[in-house]
């Protein structure tokens, strides 16, 4: 991944944040191939050579940005895993809400993800999507295994299949949250985010829950 130079880490936090905010905006607005270092440095008011000194090239900048974004996305999920009790379905509902809150707070990051998801020519697409899905699968697998062991989920569930279903439902839920027009004509009557998350969770509960416990 990115070999960011110590010179960037040694910058004041405010300057580091501004560089990453402008980079995120540029990749979100223009995608990877059309993103321009020239536009970034013009908005930042710094020399072009500074970004190359920090990150080496555009690829290095994007890799660093991606690593930071992935760490930010994982943080609230780790908190859910560690502090929200042992109820499997409450954790899943909290995951819906926390992930939607992340998108609301980082719309440009999610825009980059959507460009990556729907553009098969996005550079290093398989690698980056693999990193995202691998981290998400690891999180969900632990929840599913705990749910089976505690008797909250049906004991005959295949863990990998269940993880795939949960990831797919959550991913699609977030796409609907960020881009409602994707579901124009098929979305049920408009609901609050919390009500949508509860409805999705209840649907999963009926399919995955252990009714014999």
From TrEMBL:
PROSITE patterns registered for this protein in UniProt: HTH_TETR_1, HTH_TETR_2
Gene3D superfamilies named in the record: Tetracycline Repressor, domain 2
Protein name per its UniProtKB record: Transcriptional regulator, TetR family
Database matches in SUPFAM superfamilies: Homeodomain-like (SSF46689), Tetracyclin repressor-like, C-terminal domain (SSF48498)
Domain of life assignment: Bacteria
Keywords annotated in UniProt: DNA-binding
InterPro entries tied to this protein: DNA-bd_HTH_TetR-type_CS, Homeodomain-like_sf, HTH-type_TetR-like_transc_reg, HTH_TetR, Tet_transcr_reg_TetR-rel_C_sf, TM_1030-like_C
Any one Gene Ontology molecular-function term assigned to this protein's record: transcription cis-regulatory region binding
DNA-binding region: 36-55
Organism: Pseudodesulfovibrio profundus
Residue ranges occupied by any HTH tetR-type domain in the UniProt entry: 13-73
